[in-house]
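# nightly structure sweep
# worker-07 picked up a monomer target from the shared queue
# config: single-sequence mode, recycle default, output format = C-alpha cells
# input follows
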Amino acid sequence: MLSTIIRTIEVNGVPIGYTDTGDPNGRSDTPVIVFGHSLLFGSWMFRAQIAVLREHYRCIAIDWRGQGGTQPTQDGYDMDTLTADAVGLIRALGLAPVHWVGIGMGGFVGQRVAARHGELLRSLTLLSTSAGSQDRSKVGKYTRLTWAVRLFGVDAVRGKVARLLFGPAFLADPAAAATIDEWAERLDRVDRVGTRRAIRGAIGRAPADREISGITAPTLVAVGADDAVTPIADAWRLTELIPKARFEVIEKAGHCCVLEQPGVVTALVQSFLADVDG
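# output follows
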C-alpha cells in the first residue's frame, strides 16, 4: 500500500501543512488532484476519496491556516489569502495543471483559483459550496458559535455544530458516531484562536459571483440534499454562473457529504475526472 507523506511547505512566508500520496505510477505525467477541506476540518476528511483515487492520481490535500496541520497565523484567513496559499503550493510543487476538489471553504478557494489562475487547473469539483457572501440571517448565529468555541471549546456547542455539518440521516445512524467523535476530538486539539479566525474568515467572505462566470475549467457541482449550511438553491446557482457546469444532488447527506456518503462522492469524482481526462 502507498504511504501518505505528511509535509510542510513555506508559502507566502507561512508554513502550510499538506499530505501527499506520491506518484502511484512513477511517471511525471501522472495527473494530480488537490483537495481543499471544509471549515472546522482538515485534509483528513478526504481520506475515503484519497484511498481510492490514489491508485491512479497523485493526491495532495492542503490544510488551511489555523486548521488541520497548519498552525494559526496573525491574519490571512480571508479567501483571497487562502487562494494565494493554494496557488503558491501548486506552483511551488510544480503540480499544474491539477484537478481541484474542494468542499465548503475548499470550494470558496477553488472558485477563485479557477477564475484567476485558470491555467493551473485541469478541472474543478465544488462540493457543498456557494459563490455568494454569507447569508446575513445566519451571521449572528455563526458568530455566537465562534465565540463559544473560542471560550469553551467544541464540546460546549458540539450538538449545535454537528447538526449544521451533518445531515439527519447520518446523525441518526449509530455507525456514524465514531466519525462524529473523531471530528470533535480533532477540532478540540486545534488552537481555538486559529479556529475562531478561520470561522470569521469564512463568514466574512466577499462574493465571487462576478468573476466565476469566466471559469473555463470543466466543473462539477454537487451538494447534499440535507445541507443546512449550503442550501441546494445556493449550490445550483454555481451552475448558472459557471459555463457548462454539471450538477448533482447527493441523497441522505448534509454539508459533509465526503464523510456522510463517501462512496457516492468518490464515484461521482471518479466518473467526472475520467470524462475530463478522456
